[in-house]
């Protein structure tokens, strides 16, 4: 998600105008004369300018979002501007890990997928490297893996496969495997809504407890529900939108 969209969504959540965000940044920096001003905020949100390291720190503070998340979004935007696109961008940072996972999958070794939950980027690159035999191995682990981590990692890779051939199978697993569903929902929520893992898990488990953020959350999930490269994220986002729908428009002023 481009950093400009994230800044705009978080500003809207706080019901601030672009001018008010600029004022908050000036207060945070302690230097009103050097603040970006409304025009600066407008350029960030439109994507014409990417905030530098100095303002990333102050944006994190005033918007209440992880510094790491903002920095990662800014870095990805900069890479994209240097003409790297989609898979090529992800391969720069996830290529080696993805290659190792793809080799293990092809060799029917589930070990690398049983330790920790893999990242969205690693899944996308790994999916691009799997062949017919590997996808069969992943399907078997997704349906009958001994531990939830293995099942969700297998589902995550299959969900991002070229052509989205396993979309229906992944959706059925998410609908019926509660442990996989919770892990996948948490991962999608953390990535899409720019929150830490613990908060993401709480939102996924009990969306009604976050009624005060319903409009912001719904905006983020609505965009992810159209993600053409991840059937699992589309499914999870659609479920979250259904849960949030009664609360949309009722956030306190």
List the helices and strands and how they pair.
Blueprint: H1 3-13, H2 18-29, H3 37-46, H4 53-63, H5 67-81, H6 86-106, H7 120-129, H8 132-144, H9 148-159, H10 167-176, H11 178-193, H12 197-205, H13 214-224, H14 231-244
Helix pairs in contact: 1-3, 1-13, 2-3, 2-4, 4-5, 6-7, 7-9, 8-9, 9-11, 10-11, 10-14, 11-12, 11-14, 13-14
Ends apart, CA distance between termini? 26 Å
Q: Indicate the low-confidence ranges by residue numbers.
A: none
Query: What is the strand content?
Result: under 5%
Count the DSSP helices: 14
Please compute the radius of gyration using only Cα atoms.
Answer: 19 Å
Shape: elongated
Report the CATH architecture of the domain at 3-81: Orthogonal Bundle
CATH superfamily descriptor of the domain at 3-81:
lambda repressor-like DNA-binding domains
**What is the name of the CATH class of the domain at 3-81?**
Mainly Alpha
- Report the order of strands and helices: HHHHHHHHHHHHHH
Mean pLDDT: 86
Total number of β-strand segments? 0
- Helical residue percent band: 55-70%
The biggest sheet amounts to: none
Helix- and strand-based class?
mainly alpha
CATH topology of the domain at 3-81: 434 Repressor (Amino-terminal Domain)
